[in-house]
Amino acid sequence: MSISGTNDIQALSEPEVRELLTRYRRENWAGIQPLDVQDRVVEDLLRCEVDGLLSKVAPYIRLSPESKLLDLGSGVGSFVVACRRKGLNCYGIEPDRIGNGTALTSIQIARRRVAEPVFAAAIGENLPFADGSFDLVVMNQVIEHVSDQSAVLAEATRVLKPGGVLYIACPNYLRFYEPHYKIFWLPLMPKALGRAYLRLRRRRPVMLGQISYTTNRRLQKLLEALGPDYRTLDLHRELFLKKRAENSFAARSTRWVSKLTGLPLLGRIVLRSVLWFGSVREGGCEWVVIRKHSPTKC
Questions:
Q1: What is the DSSP letter of 64?
Q2: Global pTM exceeds 0.85
């Protein structure tokens, strides 16, 4: 697989990439994040840590150098860069505008980090790939930024191979926190109130208009609408149930709660309550969608 276009320059060195990333954050995130936060983000983007994410999908798919990966919403390309350093065949798509919409864009930076043409300027609602092209599609902190979440999920699953996996992570806006502005936030705060609040905090409200509030339950409904040809799993729920079965919780309080879920009669109610509370109060949502090998017959 290749993406149309060619790169006629060599990949930039790390100091050159750091300079571009810093400029991008200063221009595009001015008034959205403080300078110290921008600097930390730049270092995180340069670090390109992907082992955590890949370990989360490892129970559901075995990746090899022949596997094809797509980072849907690849930003400045850090996930793609890190995967290719590991010998994985990874591509990225990015719509080219976020934040203040300045001249320097994230995909311009991404394309200068890899010599091969592996990045495309495209939107999630209309992916430029054939059906069944990828073994793994990643949407990491992306779905809250798209205009039509159902259409993007339909496209992301369309390009999955049978047995392929879609990984989704996004904020839970039932928290008292806004992860882009890095400030206190009322759960599902009305946008008009949010804009006034941001101005009081001397922040630019432009990013707020580019966000659709996400919660675990809202995401679950979107994924259920994909139909019977897909299996969906809440990774936070699966982790809790795994640790409960292994009795491997580190915190004493959680171990006690886990024991309560095993009580006769009341245990099932306690378990359902704990899982519900976790889905509401978790800092973020994480799901995998697995495309079944054989379509379900109606």
A1: -
A2: yes
